[in-house]
Design a protein that fits this description.
The protein is of the alpha+beta class. It contains 4 helices and 4 strands; from the N terminus they run βαααββαβ. It has a 4-stranded antiparallel sheet, with helices on one face.
């Protein structure tokens, strides 16, 4: 008897960096789930077309970091954990890689970790402040 089963979901832990000037104008700015989803759909649309923009993604958590570090005029805001279909994960990663530098008015995403096992995302080094 085998206890293994194919992964039904893939999990992405992404860091979120605010657009240039956003953090300067409002220190307590919040980024809502709809903004994150729209940004990801726009990047998928730009890279792979309207069909890919409709890829299933479930935003499980949005965590705001408390740090004053600035990178390229941007302030790191926090991180997002997404649940996606395993076949869509490479497209999402490619889209955020291509779109991040070319969209200065939208939040920037960077991959921190990925896994088919959700609890594994909470251990080890990430991109943000550790408690």
């Amino acid at each position: 008897m085998s206890l293994t089963h194919p992964a039904n979901h893939h999990y992405l832990r992404l860091s979120l960096t605010l657009p240039v000037g956003t953090a300067d104008s409002d220190v307590d700015v919040d980024v809502d789930v709809l903004t994150i989803r729209k940004t990801l759909q726009d990047t998928l649309d730009d890279s792979f077309g309207i069909t890919s923009a409709g890829a299933y993604m479930d935003i499980l958590t949005v965590t705001k970091w408390s740090t004053d570090v600035r990178v390229d005029g941007r302030g790191p805001w926090g991180e997002v954990i997404l649940r996606v279909d395993p076949s869509d994960a490479p497209k999402i990663l490619a889209a955020i890689t291509v779109a991040s530098p070319s969209r200065p008015s939208q939040p920037r995403f960077s991959l921190l970790r990925q896994s088919s096992f959700l609890p594994s995302l909470s251990f080890g080094s990430g991109g943000g402040p550790q408690a």
